[in-house]
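Render this sequence as a predicted structure.
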Amino acid sequence: MTKVLFVVTAATGWTLKDGSVHPTGYWAEELAEPHRLFREAGWGTTIATPGGVAPTLDELSLGVAGGMPKRRKEIRAYLDSIKQELDHPLALDTVDESDYDLVFYPGGHGPMEDLAVDPVSGTLLVRRLDSGQPLALLCHAPAAILAATRDDGSNAFVGRTMTGLSNVEERFNPFAWKAKWLLQDALVDAGVDCDKGMLPMRPHVVVDGNLYSGQNPQSAGALAERILADLS
């Protein structure tokens, strides 16, 4: 059986430059849709978080920002159906990512708070990237690569091509003007070749060798389907 490790943020808030904390967590569709598609393909799934903390759903992702009411209802129902798995994740520092055929990082603003500075996740990402085995990051999850440094201090993703939530898309959020940094800027500063689609909030997937990335929540299904096509 093909096995997928979902590395999910454990953050409950995103600290802004004025010191306020915006409530956040993982984005519903970005976890639910790939998880559902992989499960329907017969793949096994495991969720891990920093410290083994049950991840927090960003409720904004099931509000108007999460799409049409029928779609949001379907996503919430799916998340409810995997509540046992969500409530009892593995601690990330106990996981051997080499046991999994795919490592998948869903987004939400949470990774900007914890995974971006998490050394355990950073080390896992370096090993996974170097292994040549499939690695996928979606929307804000590429923030996690900021912690993926080599012994000489360089970022392991320098020169790789990937996508993530663009500055234009981030600024659709009314609180974005208070952000300490924006993802697209940080990826470029880290030496990543940051690719984005022509239109915001449309599906856009980038593949660079074993590295898969999706630009935004709308890319969740397209990213999972590309991975399924390549790994099946």
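Summary. The helical segments are 28-40, 69-81, 83-87, 110-113, 119-131, 167-170, 183-189, 220-231. Residues 149 and 181 are 19 Å apart (CA to CA).
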